[in-house]
Amino acid sequence: MGGVVQQQTLRQSASFSGLGLHSGNRVTMTFLPAPPNTGIRFRRVDLNGRPEIEASVDHVSETTRSTTLSKGNIKVQTVEHVLAALRGMDVDNAFVELDANEPPIGDGSARQYTRMIEEAGTVVQAGPRAPHVVTTPLELSRGDSMVTVFPHDRLKLTCTSADKQGRFVQFCSLELSPETWKRDLAHARTFCFYDEIEHLIRNGLIKGGSLENAVVIRDDAVLTTEPLRYADEFVRHKMLDMVGDLSLLGRPLAAHVVAVKPSHTLNCELARLIHAQIRRPILAAQSFTPPPSPPAQKPAAPPATGPAAAPATATATVSTPMDTPEPGKDLIEAVRDGATLDTMQIMQILPHRYPFLMVDRITSIQGNTITGIKNLTINEPFFQGHFPNHPIMPGVLQLEAMAQVAGILMLKQADNYGRIAYFMSAENVKWRKPVRPGDVLRIEIQMLKSRGKIGKAKGVCSVAGETVSEAEVTFMLLSA
């Protein structure tokens, strides 16, 4: 995580004053150093006893247009930008003092908070940093929003955003570090659509909102006091929010998070799901890694007879490598030009199991191309919640199917035997048509690049000859 293995806190305090976005209250906020293992704590200095709320997903009470933390009668609203800045700058422990119920919004981005951290400086602490490393894929969907999490060695975000009418569709992908945070995310401002403003005001929100701290989109026009800071500023702000909401895990996250139209509600639900995974590390590891094959045994020799017979024993003889063929030889030979693979052969190659095996058959292997088939029935578990009474295969699972089929193709190189293809990123992603129960998904892969442990492939999924999705997927081969 940013090359730092020890926890960090602030070297000194830093303060900033302004208006709260939703409350409209004037507020002063101060960042202060905190001891190791404190985490991030919000402190209401305007209330008796100066009560504190830990920045934990357990304290999330509201996610409408912002993330609110509550503990008893104490509440702090719109915490996501502050938390994103602290996480983006690798600050593990800090007190955030407020004399009102909401941090100052600044210009609608996390720029001012990042400057506060730079002004205060950071210092390494004695306590070790313990990131949570995701070991098994996770998937959530709510309405037209969805998010999938894959194993990765640090926090990587891949996000697609759009409004309900499909306007301003934007895509961005990056690995989080203090450098990428300051350059690529910290300056992205909050935004809303003009037709949402009346509803927000009616519900007591954005009382402190203005063009000084938000970008407003009206039809095809972008209303702002300055030019957009990024060509894709809207999706970058969505990613900024994700960094803040996911920091509610209370520890850094090592994972590749792929999101389509994320929201605070979905972000916090994902944080809860990952938090549950942290509590079940053994089960999570078992669900991703296939069980080892039991050792082979030699048939027992017939019992000896006669006076010279030795006493019977209950021992068994374990076979040596000389007793069985080389374990990977048959599989390597099976993945060859002109070959086809059935489900049982695929399960010998891929570690994935129900419900995450996304290919049933390989129908063609030729050169640097491969074609797989996934038969979709109404019994697929994801159809139950995606969506009730309107079942559709999640697009991110189509990406996973591409990565799995591409991983099989990589086995043509003998030295890749025994490795697992970990999905890393997707570019030029296009979802064209919904995939429904009863469809036969055809997955065609063309390998574009293979260097060392990294592979990149062009994938096209089709149903009945019509393209339903396409992407360029990148994956890494690691030992099982």
Ordered list of secondary-structure elements with their pairings:
Blueprint: E1 6-10, E2 14-19, E3 26-33, E4 40-44, E5 52-54, E6 60-62, E7 68-71, E8 74-76, H1 80-88, E9 94-98, H2 111-120, E10 122-128, E11 132-133, E12 138-142, E13 145-150, E14 155-161, E15 170-175, H3 178-185, E16 191-193, H4 194-202, E17 215-218, E18 221-223, H5 233-246, E19 253-260, H6 264-279, H7 281-288, H8 329-334, H9 343-349, E20 361-366, E21 369-375, H10 382-385, H11 395-409, E22 419-431, E23 440-451, E24 454-463, E25 466-479
Parallel strand pairs: 4-9, 11-19, 14-19, 16-17
Antiparallel strand pairs: 1-10, 2-3, 3-9, 4-5, 6-7, 7-8, 12-13, 13-19, 14-15, 17-18, 20-21, 21-23, 22-25, 23-24, 24-25
Helix pairs in contact: 1-2, 1-5, 5-6
Largest pleated sheet: 6 strands, mixed
Under the CATH scheme, the architecture of the largest domain is 2-Layer Sandwich
Distance between the termini: 23 Å
Radius of gyration: 27 Å
In oligomeric terms, what are we looking at?
A: single chain
How many structural units, i.e. domains? 2
Q: Please give the number of β-strands.
A: 25
* The CATH superfamily title of the largest domain: lpxc deacetylase, domain 1
DSSP helical segment count: 11
Short note summarizing the structure:
The protein folds into 2 domains: 6-283, Ribosomal Protein S5, domain 2 (2-Layer Sandwich); 328-479, Thiol Ester Dehydrase, Chain A (Roll). 22% of the residues lie in helices and 32% in strands. The chain has 11 helices and 25 strands.
